[in-house]
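Hi all, posting the design record for the shared folder.

TITLE: backbone redesign
STEP: 1 of 1
STRUCTURE INPUT:
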């Protein structure tokens, strides 16, 4: 009534900015998760290819071991152990690279704006990389365990 219908004032709240922040944060989480998922898939494929190539190079060794009495479980466990070792080394390398990148960004960025990662993020990332490596190593280990010893000894 005192302004006689003239709108010469405004009321502002931070709700729209908060909603925009939440939307942006959700987009970053989805994008980061997609990148991490693709990275795990690619690393799993890499480990699987390395293991399949290793089996292909060691067919005669597998045949000799089976001819001497190694059970399919012995062969399977050997190749799963190799997959675990590869994925553990890859996970440790990934954590080392992440720590180095965070330290490098801490030196370049202004004080107080350096990125921080919780130790739980490293543990979760390491656990996922090892899990992906183990899952990727199961198929080649099964293929090695299924080799026929006589055919494996004939393989050149």
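Okay, here is what came back for every position:
SEQUENCE:
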């Amino acid at each position: 009534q005192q302004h006689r219908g003239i709108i010469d004032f405004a009321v502002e709240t931070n709700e729209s900015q908060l909603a925009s922040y939440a939307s942006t944060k959700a987009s970053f989480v989805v994008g980061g998760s997609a990148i991490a998922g693709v990275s795990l898939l690619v690393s799993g494929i890499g480990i699987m290819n390395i293991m399949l190539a290793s089996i292909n190079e060691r067919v005669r060794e597998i045949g000799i071991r089976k001819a001497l009495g190694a059970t399919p479980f012995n062969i399977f466990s050997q190749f799963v152990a190799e997959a675990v070792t590869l994925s553990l080394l890859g996970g440790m390398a990934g954590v080392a690279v992440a720590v180095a990148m965070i330290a490098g960004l801490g030196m370049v960025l202004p004080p107080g704006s350096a990125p921080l990662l919780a130790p739980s993020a490293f543990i979760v990332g390491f656990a996922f990389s090892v899990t992906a490596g183990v899952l990727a190593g199961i198929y080649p280990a099964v293929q090695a365990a299924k080799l026929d010893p006589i055919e494996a000894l004939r393989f050149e």
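COMMENT: The helical segments are 15-57, 59-67, 72-108, 119-145, 149-154.
Let me know if anyone wants the other runs.
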